[in-house]
Amino acid sequence: MANRVPDYEPRFLSAVRSFWEVRGDQAKRQRLGGRLDAGTRGEVTGGQHLNQVALLIADVFADAGIVPSDSSRLLPGYYRASKNWDVVVTHKGAIVAIIELKSQVGSFGNNFNNRTEEMIGQSLDLWRATREHLLGEVLPWFGYLMLLESREQSREIRENPKTAYPLDPEFQDTSYLDRYQIAFKRLRLEGDMNAVCLVTSDREQDFVSYPDQTMTFTAFATAIHGRVADVLAQLGK
């Protein structure tokens, strides 16, 4: 019988809380230093705001049976020379997992398409590099975690754009949150991503919420445990 996956949700909530705290601290430091980036950019240009989420993911891998090492997160690409991924886990020289961590706070209209194009491009480049044997002989596993600010602008139904040809009916009467969910479902369905966590959170309230129960952190962690079990079965401990 498979080992029971621990309940990571309390620790994930704590990691999300840290995300908001770090963003606020970075903006405060920039104000005190006399430099403030436009909009909310001052909260993220210092980096490190999803560090606690990355550390939790590392612990999930350790619990599953593979302790992440300090191996390089810089991997070769196909359409670009290289990319520095957020989390890269290896075992016996093989890539166990590649995970990207992203967030969007405010500026939903400006940034939604950019984020979507980015995640599509990342997955395309990764799988093309895999096809060309640039990432080793063991098929990589690609996970994606997106933290979206929960506010009216991300949840409200958007006016349907006037397109040259009819809009895909699934995008009719949807919010930005709905559109992220659709994109991630399709990326996973097409095999472009192996696991997804889509979480919303409010900086003023201590909570996380999931629009899709197949994209919770628990589901994400369960998929990680399954991936580790597969790799250990192939390569041994």
Percent range for β-strand residues: 15-25%
Rg is: 19 Å
Quickly give the structural class: alpha/beta
Trace the largest sheet across and list its strands.
3-4-5-6-7
Mean pLDDT: 86
- Principal-axis shape: globular
- What's the β-strand tally? 7
Descriptive account of the structure:
The structure is a single chain. The protein has 237 residues and is of the alpha/beta class. The protein has helices at 9-32, 51-64, 108-131, 152-155, 176-189, 217-235, and strands at 74-76, 82-84, 87-91, 94-104, 142-149, 195-201, 208-209. The chain has one domain. Helices cover 42% and strands 16% of the residues. It has a 5-stranded mixed β-sheet with strand order 3-4-5-6-7, sandwiched between helices. A two-stranded antiparallel ribbon has the order 1-2. A hairpin with a 5-residue loop joins strand 1 (74-76) and strand 2. Helix 1 packs antiparallel against helix 2 (51-64), helix 2 (51-64) crosses helix 6 (217-235) and helix 3 packs parallel to helix 5 (176-189). Residues 27-47 have low confidence and may be disordered.
What is the strand and helix layout of this fold?
Elements lengths: L8 H24 L18 H14 L9 E3 L5 E3 L2 E5 L2 E11 L3 H24 L10 E8 L2 H4 L20 H14 L5 E7 L6 E2 L7 H19 L2
Parallel strand pairs: 4-5, 5-6
Antiparallel strand pairs: 1-2, 3-4, 6-7
Helix pairs in contact: 1-2, 2-6, 3-5
Defining key terms:
single chain, 237 residues, alpha/beta, five-stranded mixed sheet, two-stranded antiparallel ribbon, 7 strands, globular
